[in-house]
Design goal:
single chain, alpha/beta, TIM Barrel, nine-stranded parallel β-sheet, two-stranded antiparallel sheet, 12 helices, 13 strands, 41% helix
Length: 338
């Protein structure tokens, strides 16, 4: 059996026997961990080792959401804390060079934390461009309210991760910043016209369209496809993400268990692949849901396989540096150390 086009979560701090057997049988391309899977560094190293052992691949992508600010899974006291995108953006607005350096340093330091415990993919940078009045699900996760800031800071953050041997995932393509609802709970609908979206939301992703991986937005853009969110919209993926944005890396869905999506799990899975997703993401570790999704996941093949392999080739040894020296420089950029 080949590798399935699936990134899967698990239920706890270590794999259950059922999860081990399931992952051996299904061979997901990657995994993702959340706070429920994390207690301390030794435990997390052990969990990552179990995941790699199940699929028999040392370079298996293991993802985490480690943005800094309110979205981070590795937290004190075992790990350092980091600033939100907005706070980094504030530095950029005061002095561009300082802001860019801070974004690079934060990502390079987070990459060191991740690699140390076996994680090698960070769902960062957030390229969403919020607008006033939108839901705060993005809010201070964003670097700023303008495309130039978001692109510049997103580029530095991505380069910091790659220098540390960690793959970045741009999100949430083609843009979640205008959403009036939290897609974890409801389906957001954006009514802006194409010209406005191309000048703002989509433009941020054009600026980083060379990066290896992107996560979709569970958002309906009603002027382009009134029926389906980007994750399950062939028009959005073909015309906007592959077309206007020019992104040719691996497209993964956002979490298929989120309430923005309708239909049962077989329906969600099939629609995501039919729309053009290369890989689907399931996060909550519920075996019943994972089993249904895996049953409708194809093996990675064709262009999806080419994109996955291109991403994996970037999983290289971190560039040599003095982490303590970089951390001192980073903390010195802020009035209060982190």
């Amino acid at each position: 059996m080949g590798i399935k086009a699936l990134i899967a979560g698990c239920s706890g701090l270590e794999l259950t026997q059922d999860e081990k057997q399931f992952f051996r049988d299904e061979l997901p391309w990657g995994f993702i961990v959340f706070a429920r899977n994390i207690d301390n560094p030794d435990q997390l190293r052990g969990l990552c080792s179990e995941m790699r052992e199940c699929v028999g691949r040392e370079n298996v992508p293991i993802l985490v959401d480690q943005e800094g600010g309110r979205v981070r899974r590795l937290k004190p006291p075992h790990w350092h804390d980091y600033h939100s995108g907005q706070i980094l953006g504030d530095l950029y607005r005061q002095d561009k060079a300082t802001g860019l350096r801070a974004a690079w340093l934060q990502s390079r330091l987070m990459a060191a934390d991740l690699i140390d415990v076996g994680l090698n993919v960070d769902c960062l940078p957030v390229l969403d461009v919020p607008v006033k009045g939108a839901h705060d699900v993005i809010g201070d996760r964003a670097y700023g309210y303008d495309v130039e800031t978001v692109v510049a800071m997103g580029r530095s953050a991505s380069e910091g991760l790659l220098a540390g041997g960690v793959l970045p995932v741009i999100k949430h393509i083609p843009g979640h910043g205008r959403a009036g609802a939290d897609s974890h709970k409801d389906l957001p609908v954006v009514d802006s016209d194409l010209a406005e979206l191309e000048a703002t939301d989509f433009a941020a992703f054009v600026g980083l369209n060379d990066l290896p991986m992107a996560m979709t937005a569970h958002v309906v853009y009603s002027q382009l496809d009134a029926e389906a969110p980007a994750t399950t919209s062939k028009k959005i993926i073909n015309d906007v993400i592959r077309g206007f944005i020019g992104f040719d890396g691996l497209i993964m869905s956002d979490d298929l268990s989120m309430h923005a999506l309708s239909g049962d799990f077989s329906d969600r899975t099939q629609k995501a692949f039919a729309a053009g997703c290369d890989c689907v993401l399931h996060c909550n570790g519920v075996m019943e849901e994972m089993s249904i999704i895996a049953a409708h996941c194809p093996e990675l093949e064709g262009q999806a396989l080419v994109r996955a392999q291109a991403a994996e080739k970037l999983l290289v040894e971190p560039q040599k540096c003095d982490i303590a020296e970089l951390r001192a420089e980073y903390e010195g950029m802020f009035a209060v150390g982190v």
